[in-house]
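To illustrate the input format used throughout this study, we show a single complete record. The first block contains the structure-token representation of the backbone; no residue identities are included at this stage. The design step must infer an amino acid for every position from geometry alone.
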């Protein structure tokens, strides 16, 4: 039991998982990153993973906007 509590004392000392990296990139993308997660990312994260995830998030965002514009243009021409 004490060993389990010891492992939970410092969760920020572990390398962030891919889910945590994704959540951190999304939070940073919207400007709501917590200082605790930002500190974990800078201390234990691999900068290449964050750059790649950021580029993917940006591409998805731009693609979504482009699809939305195409959809709106299609709707307005059909009406």
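Output of the design step:
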């Amino acid at each position: 039991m004490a060993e389990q509590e010891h492992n939970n004392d410092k969760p920020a000392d572990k390398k962030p998982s891919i889910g945590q990296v994704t959540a951190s990139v999304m939070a940073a993308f919207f400007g709501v990153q917590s200082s605790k997660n930002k500190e974990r990312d800078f201390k234990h994260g691999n900068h290449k993973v964050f750059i790649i995830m950021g580029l993917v998030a940006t591409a998805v965002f731009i693609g979504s906007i482009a699809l939305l514009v195409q959809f709106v243009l299609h709707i307005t021409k059909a009406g």
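Structural context for interpreting the output: The helical segments are 2-9, 18-30, 35-44, 47-78. The chain has a mean pLDDT of 84.
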